[in-house]
Amino acid sequence: MSENPATTEPNETNETTTPETIYSPIGLRDVVIARLLTDEPGETPTYDTVVQLVGAIDFDITDNSGDPDIQDYDDHEGHVIYPDPNMTGTMEMADIPPEKLALLMGHTVDENGVVVHSGEDTPPYFAWGFKSEKADGTDRYVWYYKGRASMPNDKHTTKPSNGKVPTRQTTKLKVTFVKRAADGLARCFVDEDSADFASAKATFFSAPYTPSITPATAPSTST
């Protein structure tokens, strides 16, 4: 008794696909700041005009939020409390012009353009935005919504007299980032080649970005 040989159907799932290519960030430029004017729970936060901060060399941002507090019960994970976003950043800069440092530190600039540092000065909060170029030539766009800088160290080194190249005396600015009180937002970021980003790209850095989120529709309870 003969058996009909099994027929093999084409397997459409075996088609060759091109793997996705990932490109690392390789740059930092176009740093901007905008002073946070109002930030009240339940209200819309407001910012001052965006100001460019030229001279950024690198920006190292670390998440210090810590691990969540997990309460186990009945032999499994139960309630979890997640810490608020808490990040610190160190931005190395070629230099910070006096008027920009005055803005960041809350100092006064007098009628002659001289920065006056008072013991009563308090650094205000700012939104911090920047672009990071990726290896394929596209950019990542970033905003941190609420960060406050601390006073940078002030070091000056004499020039050598033996013809050697002088030491570059860069400035390192430390920034602490927290979430906004108004809505709990801490940051936003996107790659410029994202298909959904085209309409928002041109104005992304005109002001701290306002997310466009459509509220989820509640499921119907009618029968």
Description:
With 223 residues, the chain is mainly β. It has one domain. The protein is 5% helix and 35% strand. It contains 2 helices and 13 strands. The model has no long low-confidence stretch (mean pLDDT 89).
Feature tags:
223 residues; single chain; two-stranded antiparallel sheet; 13 strands; 2 helices; mainly beta; nine-stranded antiparallel sheet
Classify the helix fraction into a percent range. Answer: under 10%
Q: Structural class given helices, strands, pairing?
A: mainly beta
Largest sheet: 9 strands, antiparallel
Number of domains: 1
Shape: globular
Radius of gyration (Å): 26 Å
Question: Which residue ranges are poorly predicted, with pLDDT under 50 across at least 5 consecutive positions?
Answer: none
Question: What is the element layout, followed by pairings?
Answer:
Blueprint: E1 29-38, E2 46-47, E3 51-52, E4 56-63, E5 69-73, E6 76-81, E7 86-93, H1 98-105, E8 108-109, E9 115-116, E10 126-133, E11 139-149, E12 171-178, E13 187-191, H2 198-201
Antiparallel strand pairs: 1-2, 1-3, 1-10, 4-7, 5-6, 7-12, 8-9, 10-11, 11-12, 11-13
